[in-house]
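Recap slide: Helix-turn-helix domain-containing protein, sequence and predicted structure.
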Amino acid sequence: MAQTKVRKAWEARIRAYHASGQSASVWCAEHQVTKRQLHVWINKLQVSTTKDPSKFPWVKVQMDKEAETTKSMLLVRVGSTAIEVQPGYNPALLTDVIRTLQTLC
């Protein structure tokens, strides 16, 4: 079998496997394929498709103000307590709160 025929055969098998909804073990047993072969070909085909950037179209993303704000937020965990620290926080107050939590937790 030529290399391209083998590749196309495995592409079809992998599509059938994904469409089946079965576990790899069940599908492989029904199709006389080892799990190792299946996973090797899944990885091989994924690597080859990710190398071609034309297969992934660019999508425009619009950010809102809330997303920008949460990006700059800092989450501090002390024990089981979490503190959200926003831009413009009072460092002395945060230090006092953390020290208090450390003694309590």
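Residues 3-55 form one domain.
Strands lie at 74-78, 81-85.
(End of recap.)
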